[in-house]
Amino acid sequence: MNKIMLKTLTAIFVLGSAFNLFAAESNSITIKGSTTVLPIAQRTAEEFMKKNSSINISVQGGGSSVGITSIIDGTTDIADSSRPIKDKELDKAVSMGVSPKANVVAMDGIAVIVNPSNTINNMTKQQISNIYIGKTSNWSNLGGSSGKIVVISRDNASGTFEGFTEKALDKQRTRPDALSQASNQAVVQTVSSTPGAIGYIGLGYISDKVKSVTVNGVECTKETVLSGEYLLARPLFMYTNGRPKGVVKDYLDFVLSAEGQSLIEKEGYVGLK
Amino acid sequence: MRKSHIIENIYKYIFTVLAFSCLVFLVGISVILFKEGLPIFREVSFFDFIFGKLWYPTYDPPDFGIFPLIMASIWVTAGALFICVPLGVGSALFIHEAASLRQKSILKPVIEILAGIPSIVYGFFGMVIVAPILQKVFNLPVGLTALTGSVMLGIMATPTVCSIAEDALAYVPRSFREASLALGANRWQTLIKVTMPAAGSGISTAIILGMSRAVGETMTVLMVCGGAAVVPKSFFDPVRPMTATIAAEMGEAVIGSSHYHALFGIGMILFLITLVFNATAEGISRRFRLKLGIGR
Q1: Is A122 helix (H, G, I), strand (E, B) or coil?
Q2: SS3 A138
Q3: What is the share, in percent, of chain B residues with pLDDT greater than 70?
Q4: Going along chain A, which residue ranges are E strands?
Q5: Which of A67, A73, A227 is nearest to B254 (CA)?
Q6: N or C: which end of chain A has fewer CB within 10 A?
Q7: Whole-number Å distance between alpha carbons of A175 and B236
Q8: Averaged over B211-230, what is the pLDDT?
Q9: Percentage of chain B with pLDDT > 90?
């Protein structure tokens, strides 16, 4: 009985690998990882597939860690990540014979926004962090006119939330009574209609309806994000195993081309050029 | 004769299969829900999951307490009842008792259209129109609150309550009313003393199904309730109902992670709540039909 099962399993396994081999030859790319990079991957993959109808790209989320784990165990061609690879992960990769190569595809800049009626124009990182973790609750503590601060955050699983938590709050917990909104647009809508509100959004979503404050005296713009002056910014990566080759290289070249970069800017991120 | 017989049988089987496919869906959904939801209790105890006050699913270490989410759903649903019961039952009484044929022919389709509006449209309306109004009227720091959610859900549940309550009133046999009027009672007395008590359990069913509609509504509460995962202290606080949490986080939760199982866990609790509501409604309506002698 066991022997039969073993044989069946082997057969399935062999068949499965055969299919994998077949799939690899038929120009398909798998992309997995960070939810922050997900919109970039989706948008560029769609465009790329329109141009090259023979190539099939499957894009999945899951988070940076999932992406990097997948590139190490070989279940993905490209790993999206919103953070550089950790030493531990690198050690594991080397021991598995994988050499992850970082390809920076865009920058993520997170703007802190308040209602246009707010008199405050600049905040320090410390002040922002105090507001979000619950130490500061009134605008008068920051030199503004007295009023309750309505703290607006993003839902727990979003990439912008993750980036903000890392860069502005040093991974401390957001106060539980912060309002959580499901999209950048919803944050803009709420901040624009709420005088005492503070929120954060991807750089590309800044509009006239809200006021973007300077952080430690630096305005959130494409230039300050690219130069590294602006604090709440981070590079976004697409990791490959070794130098990108074949269709994966074609795809990454497209992402980094002027057209790919303009798609990225349309999604609210900062292009590299 | 024989041929038509065969065809008839074929139709019978086709429709039997179609009808029972519902059962397959229900069983399938329950199985998946429990299979994906139960593993969360390896991470946290059932008690800590239900009564834990902190919902921080993506931090390290995470907290999976859904008490604020359950309370939010309860508050918003209770608030919605204050709006949909008077509106729904009131309109049902009017349509059934006092409306002229012409009024009826306008009101019924209008209420049906209200039921057909997609919930995202209600959500958008609530976010852009109702929330700023409530914010101004009550002088609140922010317009996205439990109250806003209640108002929107109340409006959304009204058609459900109204049409089922109206059915219940229609089931009351004519003879009941005629007997009352023949004894000299006026229409108001007949309505209050005869029709309403006879239709009472049917109306209760309507209210419970309205509740079940409100507690399960997702898109609207996601958009208008604010989304703060704290136990609400008043109707003017932003809240985060269970459905909104699942909708906001499921897309980005890692499949197979504790966060993913916790979201299924919330779905499981929600499923049990609506199951209790629907079973109660079914039980009451069965008793109601027996009481009026109209069979099952």
Answers
A1: strand
A2: strand
A3: 97
A4: 28-33, 56-62, 78-81, 100-114, 122-123, 150-154, 179-181, 197-202, 211-212, 214-215, 233-241
A5: A67
A6: N
A7: 18
A8: 90
A9: 53
A188-203 exposure pattern, b = at least 16 Cβ within 10 A, e = fewer: bbbbbbbbbbbbbbbb
Please check whether residue A35 is in contact with residue A157, taking contact to mean a CB–CB distance below 8 angstroms.
yes
Reported ipTM: 0.74
Min distance B28 CA to chain A CA atoms (Å): 25
Distance from CA of B264 to the nearest CA of A (A): 15
Residue among B183, B185, B202 nearest B96 (CA): B202
Question: Which candidate, A76, A62, A13, A54, places its Cα nearest to that of A34?
Answer: A62
* Chain A hits for B247, Cβ within 8 Å: 182
Dihedral angle of Cα A147, A148, A154, A160, to the nearest 10 degrees: 50
Q: Please, which pLDDT band fits residue A38 given cuts at 50, 70 and 90? A: confident
Residue B275 Cα, gap to closest chain A Cα (Å): 28
Task: Give the Cα-Cα-Cα angle B213, B218, B220 (nearest 5 degrees).
Answer: 95
Helix (H, G, I), strand (E, B) or coil at A179: strand
Angle, nearest 10°, between helix axes B67-93 and B196-216?
140
d(CA A165, CA A80): 19
Length of chain B equals: 296
Choose among B163, B281, B161, B152: nearest CA to B217: B152
* Interior angle at CA B249, CA B244 and CA B251, nearest 5: 120
pLDDT per position as a tens digit, A177-189? 899 888 888 899 8
Is residue A219 left, alpha or beta, with left meaning phi > 0 and alpha meaning psi from -120 to 50?
beta
Identify residue B42 by its one-letter amino acid code.
R
Instruction: Decide: helix, strand or coil at residue A269.
Output: coil
Task: Choose from A64, A155, A169 for mutation: most chain B CBs within 10 A.
Answer: A155
| Count of A-B CB contacts under 8 Å | 87
Whether residues A181 and B227 touch (CB distance < 8 A) is answered with yes
pLDDT tier for residue B134 given thresholds of 50, 70 and 90: very high
Q: Which two tokens stand for residue B77?
A: 């649903």
* pLDDT of A168 higher than 80: yes
Contact across the interface for B142 and A196, Cβ inside 8 Å: yes
Reduce the DSSP state of residue B79 to 3 states and report it: helix
Neighbours of B114 (CB within 10 A): 15
- Using pLDDT thresholds of 50, 70 and 90, give the confidence band for residue B34: very high
